Amino acid sequence: MPTFNVQIFEGRTLEEKREFVKAITEASCRTIGCTPESVDVIITEVKKEHWSTGGVLWSDRS
Question: Which residue from 20, 26, 39, 40 has the highest number of Cβ atoms inside 10 Å of its Cβ?
């Protein structure tokens, strides 16, 4: 049913990603009444040099 596409900076641990997708799944089930098996979460890791905010690459920020 719901599919979440999440983009995050690379570098998170496997355990952090496990906790994150579990939290998204639990929140989805609680709020929209779906089953855990119907929730898909797709994590795309992005290098800081490929992401900018306000015209500044994150790799250039201190």
Answer: 39
For the residues 26-44, what does the mean pLDDT come to? 98
pLDDT at res. 12: 97
Q: Which domain holds residue 31?
A: 3-60
Please state the domain count of the chain: 1
Active-site residues: which are they? Answer: 2
Q: What is the dihedral of CA 8, 12, 47, 53, to 10 degrees?
A: 40
Q: Any idea what the CATH number is for the domain that residue 32 is in?
A: 3.30.429.10
